[in-house]
Design goal:
It is a single chain. The chain has seven helices and six strands; from the N terminus they run H-E-E-H-H-E-E-E-E-H-H-H-H. The protein is mostly helical. The strands form three sheets. A two-stranded antiparallel sheet has the order 1-2. Strands 3-4 form a two-stranded antiparallel ribbon. Strands 5-6 form a two-stranded antiparallel ribbon. The protein folds into three domains: 31 residues, no CATH class; 63 residues; 125 residues, Serine Threonine Protein Phosphatase 5, Tetratricopeptide repeat (Alpha Horseshoe). The protein is rod-shaped.
């Protein structure tokens, strides 16, 4: 580094430093309070901080001066044989002045406390307004997120809405404005008809899951494979969450929540198969446990 660069650096450092008004130590030029002696640097802050002390000192000095005057007058009265009663009255007046000074100090303290309370109220209002601004900002963010979610829902329904008519076993139901347990519909196989590899099926009699090896290692591998090929198919996420929970694997919640999100999107489709609402309810109850 050259001498000129050193000088420039020293000048820059000097420009950002100043001297404390009290301890004369070097401090940052924007510092409102000395980090060494703790003294405030602004004239107004120093003045208002020391008002109670200065007032008390002035009043005490006035009182002391009055007492001294009274005392001197008493000495003069004795020396000049002034009536003792007059001296006592003056001393009494000095005492009253002292009491008045004390009362004035008390009044000033009360006024200072009242001002502090007013400042506290203003600070509280500012804090409340700040909280209101934060709440408004949160609501705005939620609205933005809601719009974003609705765009995602619209895109999902446009690209994958056809799966809404497929039941748990992967069978497509062609007819039925609102498919439920009592609806009659034409059915057909789909690319998802063998998504479960035969490890699990839903009984048409009691609507329960059946399968001796539904949570075997091979079954879990099949569910993962289906997720890789058809990530929008919620039942593979459902079965994986069910099996991982049975194995005390905490990652089950991730798959459960993912399936619930897909079920929620499909809930916007009015002619969805009733299996979707059934398994969404099962998952939401699992997540609440």
């Amino acid at each position: 580094m050259t001498n000129e660069e050193n000088k420039e650096e020293q000048n820059a450092s000097t420009l950002t430093q100043t001297t404390c008004r009290f301890c004369k130590q070097s401090i940052h030029h924007n510092a409102s309070r000395c980090h060494i002696c703790g003294s405030y640097q602004g004239y107004l802050r120093i003045f208002f901080t020391n008002i109670p002390l200065l007032t008390s000192i002035v009043l005490v000095l006035i009182a002391v001066a009055q007492v001294m005057i009274a005392y001197n007058q008493l000495i003069d009265a004795r020396q000049k044989q002034i009536d003792a009663t007059t001296a006592l009255k003056k001393a009494s007046n000095a005492e009253n002045i002292s009491l008045d000074s004390a009362n004035h100090i008390n009044k000033f303290e009360i006024q200072a406390k009242d001002k502090f309370i007013e400042i506290s109220k203003v600070s509280k209002k500012i804090a409340e307004q700040s909280l209101q601004i934060d709440e408004i900002e949160k609501e705005a963010n939620l609205l933005i997120e809601s719009i974003r979610n609705m765009n995602e829902v619209s895109e999902f329904i446009q690209n994958n809405g056809w799966i809404a008519k497929i039941d748990f076993n992967g069978i497509y139901h062609v007819v039925g404005a609102k498919l439920d347990k009592n609806s009659i519909s034409m059915t057909g196989a789909t690319v998802l008809s063998r998504w479960n590899g035969g490890f699990v099926n839903m009984s048409n009699d009691d609507y329960k899951l059946i399968g001796e090896n539904m949570c075997s290692d091979n079954a879990i591998e099949k569910y993962n494979s289906t997720i890789g090929n058809y990530p929008f198919w919620p039942y593979s996420h459902f079965m994986l969450a069910l099996c991982l929970k049975a194995k005390s694997d905490q990652s089950w919640e991730k798959h459960a929540q993912h399936a619930v999100n897909i079920f929620k999107i499909i809930s916007y489709i009015p002619d969805r198969h009733w299996h979707y609402d059934l398994f969404r309810s099962k998952l939401e109850n699992m997540l609440k446990e």
